[in-house]
């Protein structure tokens, strides 16, 4: 990717040397390129709007919850797919338009529903129980709640089973066969106005065909519910493309290829029903993943059964390798121009055998004190971090050209203690 370069053997992000950043801010450290996020957002916007004028890109907030990331995307015109009151607060604080938010989730509380009603945020309703709860909450507030239903399209997709969200067996959405009846039920609720439809088929999908199939299901449903008398204001096709985590063996479709697969289906479908809904998409990973590296210092190198490179970041800060067996490229940031010297397993500091960031990787001759960069960690990296082993979370730095600034300070041990309360009998 264009925001990376190697100069004098060191890895640079935009105009910043990772080795200098590690020295200045300490490690572990997440480092994010602002320009890369803007470029990715513009890629979706341009690709979709070359087919249709009424499009909105809703950033899937779960991918990276830093306020600065929300602010960058808001300034590029993004709305957000939000799953919690925390994500709502971040999106609004970043200046996003409440009308460009969709409150998603299969298990919302009455408080979540009340918040959406109060702020006029549309809700993607995931069950009939939720529909009736929302109707009651809206009635109490003297308002009408605008909704979509989350459609479960029952599609098999080529990705890790834990992140395939539109399988018939998945917890998300209402089975597509039951969707027309659900809309009919919504029409009968006095404080509900159905205005959209929503689906999501899965994440880290490297092929556009499943997205086109989902679009076909969605336009079929659009037709069915238009016949019920519903005036569709938006059709939300869900999450975005996967990314090539393995830089040598994988390729990912571009937003242009996505649009070429999906837009003809969408355009034909809406023409047939003579409707002009906004088209929404909800990419997360592909907007932010490759903007970011996780920098970690090598505490020691140990030749044992394998050669372990013991670094100061583990699954407390990046759980993807452990949770989904996912692959992230590793660069020795201070030896980025050196030849491969052997096979190394990069291990974190957590007290679990499984705490490995990379297994059997060909790397230059890495030594204690070196700096390792774990690539493509801007999505589901910090946002899935924890304080396991009572480790404070690390800082995050934003890069713009030659400038660097904190976008999140590191937590301290005092932060860990601050929320604890000693019961009076101890
Ligand atoms: N919209 C909805 C309703 C979603 O459930 C998701 C992701 C997205 C949008 C964003 O999809 P994306 O563009 O990022 O593929 N933690 C996992 C990924 C979980 C994704 C769940 N839903 C990982 O690290 O791979």
Question: Care to describe what's here?
Answer:
- There is one protein chain.
- The chain is of the alpha/beta class.
- The chain contains twelve helices and 21 strands.
- Strands 4, 14, 15, 16, 17, 18, 19, 20 and 21 form a nine-stranded mixed beta sheet that branches.
- Helix 2 (34-49) packs parallel to helix 9 (255-273).
- The model has no long low-confidence stretch (mean pLDDT 97).
- The site of ligand LLP has 21 residues, from strand 12, helix 10 and helix 11.
- Pfam families: Orn_Arg_deC_N.
Give the overall silhouette.
globular
Distance linking N and C termini: 55 Å
For the biggest sheet, the summary is: 9 strands, mixed
The low-pLDDT segments are none
Helix content: 25-40%
Give the class from helix and strand content and strand pairing. Answer: alpha/beta
Ligand species: ligand LLP
Instruction: Classify the beta-strand content into a percent band.
Output: 25-35%
Please count the helical segments: 12
- What is the strand tally? 21
Mean pLDDT: 97
Radius of gyration: 23 Å
């Amino acid at each position: 990717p264009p925001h990376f370069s190697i100069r004098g053997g060191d890895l640079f992000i935009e105009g910043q040397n990772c080795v200098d950043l590690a020295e200045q801010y300490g490690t572990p450290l997440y480092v994010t390129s602002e320009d890369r996020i803007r470029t990715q957002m513009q890629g979706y916007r341009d690709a979709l709007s070359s087919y249709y004028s009424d499009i909105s890109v809703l950033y899937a907030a779960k991918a990276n919850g830093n306020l600065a990331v929300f602010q960058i995307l808001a300034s590029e015109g993004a709305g957000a797919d939000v799953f919690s009151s925390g994500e709502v607060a971040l999106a609004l604080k970043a200046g996003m338009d409440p009308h460009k938010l969709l409150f998603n989730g299969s298990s919302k509380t009455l408080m979540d529903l009340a918040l959406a009603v109060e702020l006029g945020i549309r809700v993607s309703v995931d069950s009939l129980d939720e529909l009736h709860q929302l109707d009651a909450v809206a009635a109490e507030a003297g308002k009408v709640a605008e909704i979509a239903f989350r459609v479960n399209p029952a599609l098999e997709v080529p990705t890790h089973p834990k992140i395939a969200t539109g399988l018939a067996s998945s917890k998300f959405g209402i089975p597509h066969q039951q969707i027309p009846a659900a809309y009919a039920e919504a029409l009968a609720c006095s404080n509900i106005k159905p205005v959209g439809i929503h689906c999501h088929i899965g994440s880290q999908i490297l092929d556009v065909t499943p997205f086109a199939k989902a679009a076909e299901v969605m336009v079929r449903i659009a037709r069915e519910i238009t016949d019920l008398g519903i005036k569709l204001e938006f059709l939300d096709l869900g999450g975005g493309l996967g990314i090539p985590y393995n830089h040598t063996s994988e390729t990912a479709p571009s937003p242009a290829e996505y649009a070429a697969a999906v837009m003809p289906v969408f355009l034909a479908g809406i023409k047939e029903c003579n409707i002009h809904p906004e088209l929404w998409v909800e990419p997360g990973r592909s907007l932010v993943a490759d903007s970011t590296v996780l920098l970690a210092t090598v505490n020691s190198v140990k030749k044992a059964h394998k050669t372990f490179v013991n670094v100061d970041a583990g699954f407390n800060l990046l759980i993807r390798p452990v949770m989904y067996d996912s692959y992230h490229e590793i660069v020795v940031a201070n030896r980025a121009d050196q030849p491969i010297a052997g096979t190394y397993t990069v291990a974190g500091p957590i007290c679990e055998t499984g705490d490995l960031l990379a297994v059997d990787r060909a790397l230059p001759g890495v030594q204690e004190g070196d700096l390792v960069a774990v690539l493509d960690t801007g999505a589901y990296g910090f946002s899935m971090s924890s304080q396991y082993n009572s480790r404070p979370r690390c800082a995050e730095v934003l890069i713009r050209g030659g400038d660097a600034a904190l976008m999140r300070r590191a937590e301290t041990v005092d932060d860990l203690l601050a929320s604890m309360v000693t019961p009076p009998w101890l």
